[in-house]
Amino acid sequence: MEWNLKYSLRSYLRSALWVVPVLAYVTSFIAIRIVGFLDDWLEWSWQWKMEVATVQSVLQGLVAATISFIVFAFSSLLVAIQVASAQLSPRIIATTLLRDNTIRLVVALFVLTLSFGLGTLARSQAHIQYLLLSCAVVLAGTSTVAFIYLIDYAARLLRPVSIVWRLGEQGLSVIEEVYPSKIKGRHIPSKPNPPLGAPDRIVVHHGVSAIILALDLETLRLEAERTNGIIEFSRQIGDFLAVGEPLFLLYGGAAEADDRVLHGAVATGPERTIEQDATFAFRVIVDIAIKALSKAINDPSTAVVALDQLHRLLRVAGRRHLHDDVIMDSSGKPRVIFRTPGWDDFVQLSCREIRLYGAENYQVARRLRAMLDNLVLSLFEARHAALLKELELLDRALERLDLLPDDLALARTSDLQGLGAPIRDPRLKGSAPIALS
Q1: 287 in any annotated domain
Q2: Mean pLDDT by 10 residues, the chain (437 residues)
Q3: Pairing state between β 334-338 and 229-233
Q4: What are the phi and psi torsion angles at 212 (to 5°)?
Q5: Could you tell me if 279 and 212 are in contact, meaning their C-beta atoms sit under 8 angstroms apart?
Q6: Considering the domain boundaries, does residue 252 fall inside one?
Q7: String of b and e for 229-254 (b: at least 16 CB within 10 Å)?
Q8: Which residues, at least 6 apart from 386, have a Cβ–Cβ distance to it below 8 Å?
């Protein structure tokens, strides 16, 4: 199986809710046979004897209760998904809710309990197998506890702060994977690469139009080494790619590269995923913030929570080498050109839309300023230009609002809580913040 098909399959299985419950259903058949065999071998029984009719009534009640758990769990999950997608962002469904292992495991437990209970009921027509009955009762009790826990867990999970925190955690993991090298000492920006000129061959996209999800860089590097050329990937992860558009630009000996190998190194799909997409977590968090700032919802506190996570992500991204997009071989020769988002891209994505929709709100303006001030103080000098530009744009946006002088002074104060805890650091007053390299 080609790499892109394997990747698409893994990505689908990670976000599919049905996989674990189906595995639990299959497991129940195996478990029934094993436990039934042990029951016959051990001839284990309870201290008190029960009638077959009584056991059947008990098992029927357990099965009915488990069915109710399953129906309620799925109904609640569907309602929660609808509410969360409407209030926050529809992109959180695939990135958080359907990838939550707790929800999948609890639903799998319900399915296992139901199937095991039905199997035990079927084996209790003539005589009672007490070990099977004991396991069915234990599973039913565990399902009851899990059902109560699921209600509490789902209520906590669907809070904006929980969703945004999870997105922040996923975003940190992607940043660490895409940009593995931390900056040590003084940061010196990479020099731009010399132009390669016209490509010797262009490989276009075939099949169906889709979103670029991931790239197998190791395969591309090996193919470039084999042909002694340079392979340039013409897009970025997360881009939409239409049929017939350029996908690879090949230079030198890479013009002889195998098209099947090149196409097999690119995974595409109908929507963006978070695995290799460094800006997707930023995108979803910003979407949550600007939806909270809409006149229909008017929830600036959620936007402040989103800015907390954007602040966290920018601090991590700003302290890493956002590499120069050229992948070398063991001898230091360039082999693959793979463009990734740069520092300006991260900063603009995190600030521009939130400023556009939220500058008129004190909480948002103050929290946005606190984020930018803090980043200027804590990151390397090479990162300051983009941050200072956003501070300038924020000041200009506030001036255009025609606020009263006292209100304007309030909006221009840094506040990590949005409103209520202004920063009184003297370095943040008056002129531009002090740069710490």
Answers
A1: no
A2: 85 84 92 84 66 84 90 81 77 74 90 91 80 89 92 83 90 90 67 75 91 92 92 92 93 92 92 88 93 88 94 94 79 86 94 93 93 93 93 93 88 86 62 38
A3: parallel
A4: -75, 120
A5: no
A6: no
A7: bbbbbbbbbbeebeeeeebbbbbeeb
A8: 343, 344, 347, 348
Give me the number of domains the chain comprises.
1
Torsion sign across C-alpha atoms 387, 390, 395, 398:
negative
Q: How far apart are CA 121 and CA 32, in angstroms?
A: 11
- pTM of the shown model: 0.85
Phi, psi at 210, each rounded to 5°: -160, 175
Which residues neighbour 314 within 8 Å (Cβ) at sequence distance 6 or greater? 346, 347, 350, 371, 375
Contacts of 309 (CB under 8 A, 6+ apart): 164, 165, 167, 168, 171, 285
- The closest of 194, 386, 146, 421 to 304, measured between CA atoms, is 421
Within-domain flag for 58: yes
Contact 163, 155 (CB under 8 A): no
* Residues whose CB is less than 8 angstroms from the CB of residue 311 and which lie 6 or more positions away in sequence, other chains included: 371, 374, 375
8 A C-beta contact, residue 383 and residue 341: no
245 lies in some domain: no
Domain that holds residue 45: 3-158
